[in-house]
Design a protein that fits this description.
The complex is a heterodimer of chains A (113) and B (319). Chain A is α+β, with helices and mostly antiparallel strands. Chain A has 2 helices and 5 strands; from the N terminus they run H-E-H-E-E-E-E. The two termini of chain B are 19 Å apart. Classes of the chains: A alpha+beta (113), B alpha/beta (319).
């Protein structure tokens, strides 16, 4: 359950920056090879956000694929998960590039009353 | 739980050194090992506490402009109610990991992070390794477990200094924990530091400690499909040790299939098969270690004959 540690980290970081404003959503960029389960992260985020400026806020997760290349047909492959197969059927792929990102991009506040 | 690095917070993390002294994880202790717990309050790079910051009232136009570039997003989120943050969630852990790495490399200490599920045989392998190599390679061990100092005691009984890190509810070691352990162990120049992570095939993959390499240990009783089921761990590792090969006759474990699965997630991964219990294959493992330790020492210019103890101290955790 390292998702909880990560969720608490996100909430603390954003809460600090929110001042008195209520946060409507937080946008997170997560590489497809980053060892995090989006649904679990969303759930933990909800729990961690309780009692903070982020209570009830949505967590928008943008998944960024890692890139690889098929060693058999040369095709570039966007890896949507850690186990990728080339369209040609090959499993013989270059080590992936990228995909490890875990970044808070921005947050959006509720309209001022 | 520590927010940024993900370790468990405060008194939940305990360190037990070679002398058996236990202490809780220190908090906010300024210039000693303030570890990760002041995270949220330190003004590290990218840190944005300075709300009451008076700058914008008295500096020149150029500075004012720079100030806007770096801090304005804090004060001026008005456009579209959107505040750009652009911050790596693991930045704090990763920065500390790099500090650990730099310190270790400078001393020519080879640090290896050993990962596996509970019961795969990490501690038994360490005991055997220590008994076989301690006269030729100086070693020390960081033991990570949620509770008990049992493993550190086993390691000390095998003849090696060790620090036990009890993570409490935490499911992995993190870079600040390693920094703290380094401070206590003070590994000699040109030595080998073995880090036994918390038994867990998932979480430790995400947390860089500053090690030179991760080694994943898979025992044949766990099944040859584990690299596919836990791809992140096998992707992060440089070497896979298939352990308990003395049991191969009794289980359905296909070593070649296991390697194929591991190579599918990590084409560069190396494989060694061994049995820590019977001793089969251990010489290959020792040869792998010797070559790595020698290379790390050479890179750092360490004369292994001298074993000179440097006066430099391990990385400090102050802000």
């Amino acid at each position: 359950m390292h998702e909880l540690s990560v969720a608490v980290g996100i909430v603390e970081l954003c809460n600090e920056r929110a001042g008195n404003a209520r946060v409507r959503n937080v946008r997170l960029r997560v590489g497809t090879l980053c060892c995090l389960q989006p649904e679990s992260l969303r759930f933990c985020f909800q729990v961690a956000a309780e009692g903070t400026a982020l209570q009830g806020a949505a967590l928008d997760i943008e998944r960024v694929p890692a890139l690889s290349r098929c060693r058999d047909c040369g095709r570039t492959i966007e890896m949507q998960e850690a186990l990728a197969t080339c369209k040609c059927g090959s499993l013989n792929l270059d080590p992936p590039r990228g995909g490890n990102e875990l970044r808070i991009i921005c947050m959006e506040f509720e309209e001022a009353a | 739980m520590c927010a940024i690095c993900g370790c468990s917070e405060g008194a939940e993390t305990r360190f037990t050194d070679s002398a058996g002294n236990t202490h809780a994880h220190p908090h906010n202790d300024g210039d000693t090992l303030s570890h990760g717990h002041t995270h949220d309050h330190h003004h590290g790079e990218g840190h944005m506490h300075s709300h009451e910051h008076p700058h914008e009232h008295h500096h020149g136009e150029e500075l004012a402009h720079q100030h806007r570039a770096s801090v304005a997003t804090l004060h001026e989120p008005q456009h579209d109610n959107l505040l750009r943050i652009e911050q790596d969630v693991l930045a704090r852990n990763n920065r500390m990991a790099e500090r650990n790495r730099g310190w270790l490399e400078g001393r020519g200490v080879l640090a290896l992070n050993l990962l596996s599920s509970p019961g795969a045989g990490k501690t038994t392998l360490l005991e055997k390794t220590i008994r076989a190599l301690h006269t030729e390679i100086e070693m020390c061990v960081v033991e990570g477990d949620q509770e008990t100092t049992l493993d550190a005691e086993r390691i000390r009984a095998a003849g090696c200094p060790s620090v036990q890190v009890n993570t409490g509810t935490g499911c992995h070691l993190d870079a600040p924990m390693l920094a703290h352990a380094l401070h206590s162990l003070d590994p000699p120049r040109g030595s080998l530091l073995l880090i036994e992570n918390v038994g867990n095939l998932v979480c430790p993959a995400l947390f860089d400690l500053g090690e030179a390499a991760k080694i994943v240990i898979l025992s044949v009783t766990e099944g040859d499909d584990k690299p596919l089921k836990y791809p992140h761990m096998f992707r992060a590792a440089q070497l896979m040790l298939v352990n308990k090969t003395d049991l191969l006759a009794h289980v359905d474990f296909d070593v070649q299939a296991c390697l194929d699965h591991a190579r599918r997630v990590n084409p560069e991964i190396e494989l060694l098969r061994l049995s820590a219990r019977s001793g089969a294959g251990l010489e290959d493992w020792y040869a792998w270690l010797r070559a790595r330790v020698a290379a790390a020492g050479l890179r750092a210019g360490v004369d292994r004959e001298l074993h000179t103890s440097s006066s430099s101290v391990p990385p400090r955790r102050s802000a």
